[in-house]
Amino acid sequence: MNGIHLALLGGALAALAACGPRYEGSSEIVTGVGQGLLARFGLDGGSSSTAPAAEATAAPALDMTALAADGREFILASIPSRDTFALIQPAGQNGPERTWLSEDGISVTFESGMLVATRGLGPDLMAADVSGTVAAMRQGGGAATRVHEYLDGNDQIVRFDYSCRVDVAGTEEIAIYDRTYASVKFTESCERGSQAFTNSYWLDETGVVRKSRQLISPPVGYLDTNRL
């Protein structure tokens, strides 16, 4: 990395470490979730979960001026496998965990930008321990253990331990509608036997997870978030 890239990485890591546990991206979506908000702020298109994933649409057009004037925090969230989008808003804070809620009551909770729970997406991520991932990211990368909890067919909690590797993938300038952000991209590659997945996080210079792609559950797939 050149000097500019190193400075950006250092700034993002310093901000992340200084703030301690913080939430920077959470979301919830299924078909129709948040469509009222999308319509209110200028959605010019949409999609249904019945549409084939291979035909996923581009992000909907939004009235960014109206969003800015509204004054509240928003995240545009999507589940690519269901070809759906939704605007979501913060609903509560519990220590380092922050929950965002859709108009239809679907919720997603993050800790330091890492997904730790969902409700209403089915099959949900009931809980996750991401402390190892958070620590590795603050150190600029390294090994980590991640724990996911899901419900089995008998409504019993089943625990899955994943061995993960967090790496800096480089710096990128990302565009989120009418704004651009200098960011550091982190990847988190996790394995458990034959199971494997990769989460991606884009941190801006203030340590905010401005954009992410994270696994909810194997049947549901990934959750994409863009902090507006």
TrEMBL record:
Q: Which superkingdom is the protein from?
A: Bacteria
Protein name per the record: Lipoprotein
Which species?
Oceanicola granulosus (strain ATCC BAA-861 / DSM 15982 / KCTC 12143 / HTCC2516)
What the entry lists under Pfam families is as follows: YjbF
Read off the InterPro entries from this record. Answer: GfcB, YmcC_sf
Q: Where is the signal peptide?
A: 1-17
Which keywords appear in this protein's UniProt record, sorted alphabetically? Signal
